[in-house]
Amino acid sequence: MTERMQNAADAGPGPHYLALRDHLAGEIAQGALAVGARLPSERQLQLGSGAARGTVREALFQLEAEGLIYRRDRSGWYVSPPPVVYDPTRWAGFMAYVAEQGRVPTTETLGKQSVAASAADAAVFGCAIGTPLFALDRRRAIDGRPVLVERILVDPVIAPDLLDEGLDGSLTAVLTGRYGVRVVRNHVEMRPCALIKDVARALGVASGTPGLLVVRRSFDAGDRIIEYDHEYWRHDAIRVLVEVRTRD
Amino acid sequence: MTERMQNAADAGPGPHYLALRDHLAGEIAQGALAVGARLPSERQLQLGSGAARGTVREALFQLEAEGLIYRRDRSGWYVSPPPVVYDPTRWAGFMAYVAEQGRVPTTETLGKQSVAASAADAAVFGCAIGTPLFALDRRRAIDGRPVLVERILVDPVIAPDLLDEGLDGSLTAVLTGRYGVRVVRNHVEMRPCALIKDVARALGVASGTPGLLVVRRSFDAGDRIIEYDHEYWRHDAIRVLVEVRTRD
Fold it and tell me: Is RNA-binding found in the keyword set (chains A, B) (predicted)?
């Protein structure tokens, strides 16, 4: 670890791939390679740098691991947009905190249906296994680029006509405005994970790409669960930020 | 997404790999496959389930993505220990919060040296590029299994003899006890990432495995930076938990 981290930080001497990584990272930082720009092809990078094919790929994988570049289908490598900052201690939904950061949030409903509570769901909702729950599947994008897919479960008792509502905005706003529900507590759990199968496909990333699973449970003043949400984020789209001070 | 998530949750009908996934997840949940136990070989799973080789592998990759099992070198698949819970809003270091959860934390110093501040370091420390900083590289384990590697940077002005100290415990305790430094604010940033190269090697995982990068900056009452820490966690070892209530 020592050598890698030091060399990457210092742009000093070190393995050849780090020199190329530092060169490309520098171009990105200075804007010579702008957000959304396509990188030169691997072949062009090979010719330009005099590096071997394996070295070029190592540099690209390093930049991908850091979230600076990403692959799009098979058309090549692109400069990643900056990640959005998510502060779980703040009281703002996706549509609000993304817009606050000067970005454009959009939400697309992929499906809405009634499902039977699994054992795990039943434990969270305090209901019997098999009890009907509303499931809402959505994909959310920032500046047109899909960044997360989510499934939200809601107890039909709380919002009987929920599936007839427009759900492409803030679900919390619908629950508050239409059903008078008020969330007063959020329990947020975050786990790094691999994005695979249908989730990877919905986000347009290769299966196995790193991601972040954010599981949010929202409760009202009576400690009744209102929303149970699983969000799968692509790894380069989110940065979680928490600031904390001693209380004494 | 809809189908996958639904089927995985319900153990209902669905792709064959999900049935095997649910079966193995059930064995793990019930303790028939205990923490640390080696799973049957892929060949044995094939014979036992009647599933095709590709189906068996899909089920194993699914369980790996969820953090329930992991690969050890080339010796097979093992049941993951439960992740440790990290609450960035709490004021406890690794040695403290891991022990509180009934687990055994250990710290191993991999290297300590003086390095020259990079442009990024200089911006954080408010010093000139090239200024000497102390760098401490450590690997930390829970119950003997390495879970993170980290590099901590400290300004030598704050702790001139730091590199001569024993640093296999809490660095904060050394800075407080020996140098009278008091941290009053932490700025914590978390980014999902891929673990590659030296970091992956130090943690004994395959290059490209998902991980979590935790970047922590600690400040004293005068807003002077005390510790600048980069922690790379293996994805199945950590769960970040934040609980928040409305303030009104």
Answer: no
Establish if B240 touches chain A: CB-CB under 8 angstroms: yes
Does residue B13 sit at the A interface (CB-CB below 8 Å)? Answer: no
- Rounded to a whole number, what is the distance in Å from the CA of A95 to chain B's nearest CA? 18
Domain with CATH 3.40.1410.10 in chain B: 84-240
* Residue in A187, A197, A198, A218 to test binding to B, most B beta-carbons within 10 Å: A197
- Which tokens belong to A18? 């780090």
The reply to whether residue A4 touches residue B197, judged by beta carbons under 8 angstroms, is: yes
CATH number of A2-79: 1.10.10.10
**Does A2 contact B89 at a Cβ distance shorter than 8 Å?**
no
Chain B interface includes A122 (CB < 8 A): no
Residue A166 has pLDDT above 90, yes or no: no
**CA A93/CA A173 separation, integer angstroms:** 10
The ipTM (two decimal places) reads 0.84
Compare all CA atoms of chain B with the CA of A17 and give the residue at the minimum distance.
B197
More confident residue, A16 or A171: A171
Residues 46-75 of B with CB under 8 A from A: 61-62, 64-67
Residue range A103-144, pLDDT digits in tens: 999 999 999 999 999 888 999 999 999 999 999 999 999 999
Query: Mean pLDDT in runs of 10 for chain B (248 residues)?
Result: 37 68 90 93 91 91 90 85 93 92 96 93 95 97 96 96 88 92 94 91 90 95 95 95 82
* Architecture of the domain defined by A84-240: 3-Layer(aba) Sandwich (3.40)
Chain A positions touching B9 (Cβ under 8 A) are 115, 118, 120-121
- Count of CA atoms in the C-beta half-sphere (13 A) of A65: 23
In chain A, ranges of CATH 1.10.10.10 domains = 2-79
Residue B22 touches partner A, C-beta closer than 8 Å: no
Token pair of B52 as six digits: 């095709």
Question: How many angstroms away from the CA of B57 is the closest CA of chain A?
Answer: 13
